[in-house]
């Protein structure tokens, strides 16, 4: 009988290990990004901490993902929203500027449905990449309004959209 118990324990241990490995394999991988030039600005730390107030950690109905670069965040699998704090602030431009969440956003739609929105007149500058295709289910206005309200609290306003 001792052999039988040992076989059961060995089979149980193997099954547990297999289930654990299968569970880990199902986890989303970390998204590899490059930290923006001013990622170490203390206000970026405040922006990133402010993201914790998002209900359930979601943004635009997308779940938060791990990133490997300072002052960055991502949502969706595959990633449909990527945020970076500490990007180079944009200068004067003729690109469309909209105000959402109390923050001016320069929106580059040249690669639509993929959009790049960068805060205008804010230091540090924040950039959001969005996939606004129907398949992603992301509403850019809702995302920028939500992020804008958070960014407005933790960044310094130096200008505004005209």
Please describe the topology of this protein.
Elements: H1 2-25, H2 42-50, E1 64-65, E2 72-75, E3 81-87, E4 97-100, E5 103-111, E6 114-120, E7 122-123, E8 125-131, H3 140-154, E9 156-157
Largest sheet: 7 strands, antiparallel
What is the general shape?
globular
Q: Approximately how much helix is present in the residues?
A: 25-40%
Strand content of the residues, in percent? 25-35%
- Give the averaged pLDDT, no decimals: 86
Order of helices and strands: HHEEEEEEEEHE
Number of domains: 1
Question: What this model shows, in words?
Answer:
The chain is α+β, with helices and mostly antiparallel strands and 162 residues long. It has one domain. It has helices at 2-25, 42-50, 140-154, and strands spanning 64-65, 72-75, 81-87, 97-100, 103-111, 114-120, 122-123, 125-131, 156-157. The strands form 2 sheets. It has a 7-stranded antiparallel beta sheet with strand order 1-2-3-8-6-5-4. A hairpin with a 5-residue loop joins strand 2 (72-75) and strand 3. The radius of gyration is 21 Å and the shape is globular.
Keywords:
single chain, 162 residues, alpha+beta, two-stranded antiparallel ribbon, 3 helices, 30% helix, 27% strand, globular, disordered N terminus
Brief write-up:
This protein is an alpha+beta fold and 162 residues long. It has helices at residues 2-25, 42-50, 140-154, and strands at residues 64-65, 72-75, 81-87, 97-100, 103-111, 114-120, 122-123, 125-131, 156-157. It contains three helices and nine strands; from the N terminus they run ααββββββββαβ.
């Amino acid at each position: 009988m001792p052999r039988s118990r040992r076989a059961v324990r060995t089979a149980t241990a193997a099954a547990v290990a297999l289930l654990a490995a299968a569970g880990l394999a199902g986890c989303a991988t970390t998204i590899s990004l490059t930290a923006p030039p001013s990622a170490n600005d203390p206000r970026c730390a405040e922006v990133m901490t402010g993201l914790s107030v998002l209900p359930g950690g979601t943004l635009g109905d997308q779940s938060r993902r791990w990133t490997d670069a300072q002052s960055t965040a991502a949502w969706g699998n595959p990633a449909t929203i990527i945020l970076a704090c500490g990007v180079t602030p944009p200068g004067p431009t003729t690109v469309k500027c909209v105000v959402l969440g109390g923050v001016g956003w320069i929106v580059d739609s040249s690669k639509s449905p993929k959009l790049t929105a960068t805060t205008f007149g804010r230091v540090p500058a924040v950039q959001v990449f969005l996939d606004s295709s129907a398949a992603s289910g992301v509403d850019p206005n809702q995302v920028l309004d939500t992020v804008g309200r958070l960014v407005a609290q933790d960044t310094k306003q130096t200008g505004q959209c005209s």
